[in-house]
Design goal:
The complex is a heterotrimer.
Chain A lengths: L5 H5 L14 E10 L2 E11 L3 E6 L6 H9 L6 E6 L2 E2 L5 H6 L2 E4 L11 H6 L5 E2 L2 E2 L1 H14 L15 H14 L4 E5 L7 H16 L3 E5 L3 H7 L2 E6 L2 E7 L5 H9 L27 E8 L3 E8 L4 E5 L6 H9 L6 E6 L2 E3 L4 H6 L2 E4 L3 H4 L7 H13 L7 H15 L15 H13 L5 E5 L7 H16 L3 E5 L3 H7 L2 E6 L2 E7 L6 H10 L5
Parallel strand pairs in A: 3-10, 3-11, 6-9, 9-10, 15-20, 15-21, 18-19, 19-20
Antiparallel strand pairs in A: 1-2, 1-4, 4-5, 7-8, 11-12, 13-14, 13-16, 16-17, 21-22
Helix pairs in contact in A: 5-6, 6-7, 9-18, 13-14, 13-15
Chain B lengths: L1 H9 L10 H20 L6 H26 L7 H17 L4 H25 L4 H19 L4 E2 L3 H8 L1 E4 L2 E4 H19 L1 H11 L1 H6 L4 H27 L1 E2 L7 H11 L11 H21 L6 H24 L1
Antiparallel strand pairs in B: 1-4, 2-3
Helix pairs in contact in B: 2-13, 3-8, 3-9, 3-11, 3-12, 3-13, 4-5, 4-6, 4-11, 5-6, 5-11, 8-9, 8-11, 9-11, 12-13, 13-14
Chain C lengths: L1 H25 L7 E3 L2 E3 L1 H8 L1 H15 L7 H17 L7 H28 L4 H20 L4 E2 L3 H8 L1 E2 L2 E2 H19 L2 H10 L1 H6 L4 H27 L1 E2 L8 H11 L11 H20 L7 H16 L1 H7 L2 H11 L1
Antiparallel strand pairs in C: 1-2, 3-6, 4-5
Helix pairs in contact in C: 1-13, 2-13, 3-8, 3-11, 3-12, 3-13, 4-5, 4-6, 4-11, 5-6, 5-11, 7-8, 7-11, 12-13
Classes of the chains: A alpha/beta, B mainly alpha, C mainly alpha.
Amino acid sequence: MIDSTSASRAEQITVQHSQPTNPTVQMAGITVEFPGVKALDGVDFRLFPGEVHALMGENGAGKSTLIKALTGVNPIAAGTISVNGSSMRFNGPADAREHGISTVYQEVNLCTNLTVAENIMLGSEPRRFGGLDWRTMRRQAKVYLERMGLDIDPSSSLGSHSLAVQQLVAISRAMVVDAKVLILDEPTSSLDTDEVEQLFTVMRQLRDDGVAILFVSHFLDQIYAIADRITVLRNGQLVQERMKDQLPQRELVSLMIAGTSDAQVSRANERVAVTERAADAKPLLQAVGLGRKGAVQPFNLDLYPGEVIGLAGLLGSGRTELARLLYGADKADVGSIKLAGEPVKLRTPRQALGRKIAYTSEDRKGEGVIGDLTVAENIILGLQAARGWIRPLPTVKATQVVDAYIKALGVRPANPNALLKNLSGGNQQKVLLARWLATAPKLLLLDEPTRGIDIGAKTEIMNLVSELAEQGMSVVFISAELEEVLRLSDRIVVMRDHEKVAEIASTPEVDVPRLIEIIATGEEDK
Amino acid sequence: MSILSETRKSAPKLSLDRRYLPVLGTVVVFVLMLVIGGARYENFLSPAVLSNLFINNAHLIVLAAGMTFVILTGGIDLSVGAVLALSSVITATMLNAGIPLSLVLPIAILSGSIIGLGMGVMIQYFEVQPFVATLAGMFLARGLCFIFAPESVPIRNEGFVALSSWGVSSGRWRLTAAVVIALLVVAASWWVLHRTRFGRTVYAVGGGEQSATLMGLRVARTKVMVYVISGTCASLGGILFAMFSRSGYALTGVGMELDAIAAVVIGGTLLIGGMGFILGSVVGVMVLGLIQTIITFEGTLSSWWTKIVIGVLLLVFVVLQRILTLRRN
Amino acid sequence: MTRIYKHRLFWPVVALLALLLACTIKRPDILGISVLDGHLFGAPIDILRNSSPLLLVSLGMTLVIATRGIDLSVGAIVAISGAVALTFIASSSNPGSVGTAIGAIVVALGLCVILGAFNGLLVANFGIQPIVATLILMTAGRGVAMLITNGQITTVNSAPFSKLASGFVLGLPVAALIAYGVFAVVALVVRRTALGMLLEAVGINPEASRLAGVKSKTLVFTVYVLCGLLSGLAGLIFAANTMAADANNAGLFIELDAILAVVIGGTSLAGGKFNLAGTMIGVLIITTLTLAVTVLGISPLVTSLFKAIVVIAVTLMMSTRLRAMFGSLRDRRRYQEVGA
């Protein structure tokens, strides 16, 4: 599936790095299977020395799985890995590291309670008289730090430094073993612009020293600033590998997401017409300059009853963070919220729920499902939490609510006493939706409600959202699949790099390519 | 002490590394207690009193040293009091049975190591919570005590008696064999914790087990080893206690695990792991000992004030630590 | 569903029956109950009565553990409760009156609620690890009890108060009636109100519960208060049994027995789903164990060895690792489903 022309394009690599003859890492036909899912399906991937290779893809595309397959965290069902021409299988990050493949993770995986020197050197620490030689250790660490352009005290504790510095320390650690391959898994997600620039300077320097760098980031600008080669994965399959210069931003985005729409999804539920908002309609919720540092830049947003707002944007663009601010799941630093014209404080989910706002998290397992409780208990949890423990929901009412929603949403198995953890993803999602619908919200925030569930369930959930809006509910719908966003929304808000960049009406002229254009360039008009 | 000299090197400015704040707090409390005691009571700051502080608490110092390893990884060891009793009982009964000292001491010490190993394996490989696993170790050791000897066993072995009464004096300062051993254990613990990869791994595990694993450190082995070390320290503490009391008794050391944990916490080690110093634990033991000494000197105050004061100190330190960790995040 | 439920309590029940069987083989008449002066007597009645304080403490402990917590201070609270009640009676002008006994009970329980609230405050509001937070009261509590009794073993004579332990109503011991009655009431409240479900939700997935609007702080605070109150009640029964407030030994190690009972009863120390019936069986096993040791002529001093074996066996049986090692294919398939 490798782009057939890539061989000829390899010749066009800019002169500044040496012409790669052989890749440092060559992965071929990699398949990784989890129970019931093929996380990677015959993926080819290669890393050349002296090159920054960006690995792109949406949620579930298989980026992390590919990295984990390389470093031996995930077992490989089929395929080969060769490093410098010889076939290899690693049994973990430590093993990979010993063979010159170092990984730096998004969440800095170092020990903040240890000193900077230890974090860099532990594992290859200098010794004297059988014990650690702290002085030499600090001196050597200092050398690596200077290489990163860092002038910090090696004996200070790592936790006393900013995340950016910690990230660079993590890279220093990677260099101690003379890494030939450096894997950077979303290293920039918590850095600000200057910090990113500092990181890039280091990356360029390492690249010029001949290190092969695998770079994962959701920020398109960053990819185009640093990457030489781009590989796109989608749904566990290789879409394309190309040199950056031959891959315009717009095309990249469409490679990442356009194809994901399921052709099988029935077209019957296409929204007939965009509901015309009455001229005198009053917004249900108004966010004014709402923002949170490191999550979302301050934004304005009006939500009207009976309207579906689609949030489009790549993973990490701030779409989830925006919804969490509206729900009080995270506290906003700046800005205010008005509900029906009246200023309100939404600092906890409880307050939001009291104001009839509901939110389903994209992290179904971690933040939604209470697996060891039954379907019925999970459904009534929201209602019950609002009532407090002392006033239980009357059994008759509870049974009624549970049965009604199991039936209305078609939860399978239709057994209220089944443990939620034993249901499939789609049915778990329906149960969570039921939990929120039971609280009769006026505003429903749905964060990727259709991710990872089968097509039937997807269609049902989308039909439901349409119906709810028609009944007057205000809905915010977040999805990585632009087709879905287009089909459901009355208005579409586009997020890019933690910023709201556009808000457009979902008119017939707006199609997937148009959205991609906005996501890729951040500009509403070309 | 070397920790302090390191501070000076690493922080040339006035800013003190926050890691040392809890320990510093303990030292301040300790010094304050000395000053207040010295001002209030005659002979409080005498060499005899200060020597006794070490002599009476030698076994607790060793227990606290072992406990420090465990707590640094974020675990806990409830078995140390019972293991201490077991080792003292083993020592007493075997010596009285005529088994030579050179054989008895290693066996007694090994008893703690083996129990520690068992608990470590339960915790690491069978994912039993440290609390429950060491609770089982505690019941086991206590039960074994009674199998060896339900009654108190006086020790009459000449070699052991000679060892326990050995001491050096200079003026009214006195140093017993038990104190020397305890200080050696502290020195060794310090060296292991600060000068070996294993020691740094102990800290790393406490700071974040997953991070430590991804850094390629040997987490599983370290987690088992800390319980072996704690068990070994506890059984060594048992021998020291037997030297102190010249007997072995199944009911010694009841609740002593709490004293050890309290000493470690007051000594500035975070119970969530990853932060703390062995020397802090020693100062923690000294603080506990001083509370007792002051209450004895006060005369009118009853002994139960010891527990209350320890509780209050614990509260203060735990709340302070909580504030510290909150600021860290 | 019902099969899993049975499975959970299967081994604890087997252990209890085995212990009783062992006793019966040694002394065939042991399980007989005789009637004397209109009161029931016999080993089963003794087990019920002796298990009363532990049952109360374990009840509170189960709820605390369900929220991913633990309460180490229950033993100290038992001591304080007894000390307060008996000192109150001793200092009263009319120690034998019913009013004094009631006053003693109210004052003691009131103080225990405050102590429970102290624990709850540290855990729920300050966010201190439960094990550390309750360690404070565990250490200081016995000192406080000593302070109250002035270090003496206060002995008093109060017929109404001693009825708490030695009295009989309807032929059954009052202590057992109180403990099992309270147990039934709390169990009923927990399962009839939403308390049980919300506690489990908080224990299973704290973040999901927060997002669902559950007031987890209040809930956690409440269970520590309840645990303090129940421990206080246990302390009153202890004190009434001996009519002597022994601050050093009252409720010594009861926290360990209670945690043990909870774990044997199939409630995981990791929090979440709890099983009150299991806890009751765990309490009965521990109480019967003490009886069995006597009946079987084993030195009572070795009881702790038995406990060690029970703890190790039960926790290892629950370990997923060991289950995976011996696990059937069916089990393995179930884990995979959960993992996916």
